[in-house]
């Protein structure tokens, strides 16, 4: 009689069970991440994750530097990026030594992107001195803009009029707004860089 047979059977069953659990966890995680990227399509304003290009980042930096110089080289204050995606916009800007930023905050509805942004910033903060930077999961339409001095938005055309109304209602006089790709429809930009899909617009509210 082989006394090892029941033990081998138990081990084999345990391995199959562990593998099944592993596949189940992977399937759930994959579904969650997939849904995080697809769900914007079903909202009133679809703001999909479109990573900022290097040209958009450079143009944004140029206009922020211009705004800073027009403000007697004073700080841009507290900066918020609405729909911060993978965090690349804020991380790029805080890495530019000529920009004076007291704090930076990214708000993004896609939780996996928020996690990714936090991890990326953690490694960046190890090699350069940065202002306080935070990334949170939240709805930009429910975000109180009144506590920020500078607002960044890489938006889509369908949302620009509504977000403009929110900015006018909540932002303090003199606040700086930068929009990329699309302008605010009813506000006159004080400076802009027209560069096709890399266009960026500067407003003083």
SSE map:
Elements: H1 4-38, H2 54-70, E1 78-82, H3 88-94, E2 103-108, H4 111-124, E3 132-137, E4 150-154, H5 160-170, E5 176-180, E6 191-193, E7 200-204
Parallel strand pairs: 1-2, 1-4, 2-3, 4-5
Antiparallel strand pairs: 5-7, 6-7
How many strand segments? 7
Query: Class of the largest domain in CATH?
Result: Alpha Beta
Corresponding CATH architecture of the largest domain: 3-Layer(aba) Sandwich
* Rg of Cα set: 23 Å
Strand order of the largest sheet: 3-2-1-4-5-7-6
CATH topology of the largest domain: Rossmann fold
- Continuous helix count: 5
Proportion of beta-strand residues? 15-25%
Main sheet attributes: strand count, strand direction, barrel closure = 7 strands, mixed
- Domain unit count: 2
Identify the quaternary structure here. single chain
The CATH superfamily name of the largest domain is Vaccinia Virus protein VP39
Mean pLDDT across every amino acid position = 84
Protein name: Protein FAM173B
Keywords: Membrane, Methyltransferase, S-adenosyl-L-methionine, Transferase, Transmembrane, Transmembrane helix
GO molecular function, one term: protein-lysine N-methyltransferase activity
Organism: Schistosoma japonicum (Blood fluke)
